[in-house]
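> run fold Spore germination lipoprotein GerD
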Amino acid sequence: MKSQWLRQVVLLILIGMVLSSCGSDSSSSQSQNGGYKDTKTMVLDILKTEDGQKAILTASQKAAAQDGGQLKLLSAGDAQHIQLAVKDVLTDTSNNKFLQTVITDPKFAGEFAKAIQKEMKQLQKDLMKDPEYQQALVSTMKNPDFEKMLLDTLKSTPYRQQTKTVIQESMQSPLFRLDLMNVMKKVLEEESQPKGQSKSGGESQSGGGSQESGGGGNQKK
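> ok
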């Protein structure tokens, strides 16, 4: 799951880099004439600069908002160079370490997560429909380590405080309070009735009906 997310992040970074360079004739001509090594070097150089990261973030947000409409501007050669560059960046351990550093930056990660929120949401929906993913998720939840971690989280002070806040906010809702009152009223009514009253009443009615039917039979005789 982490590696798949990392691949998507790198791919969007590279796409954003190409989109940001499409506005310049000189940049587009260099992209067409440049080879795989030039593309790789350009990607790494941009990732190492703060201005480059900001430009990539802006371009990726625009690309996500337009549903990838500008991707049609890329030629077949550009697309192939990008694919090779992505593959090389992902398989190079030194590049992976650098990418992890960039992705874990709070500001960059937060803004980038917003840019790809739609794609990630759809990915989660697709995974939840996958039988293999469902089985793996169930196996993970049954893992003793996961259960221990979940219990520790439920016992933690921050979680309890958050739960308390949610309950307090829910109690302020008129609809929630009305539903809660109806539930409590129903419970009190059920508890106030003597146990077995409805059962004995049903039996007496059944017995009375039998006697009436028996009496009717005797009259016919």
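Residues 22-28, 68-73, 211-217 have pLDDT under 50 and may be disordered.
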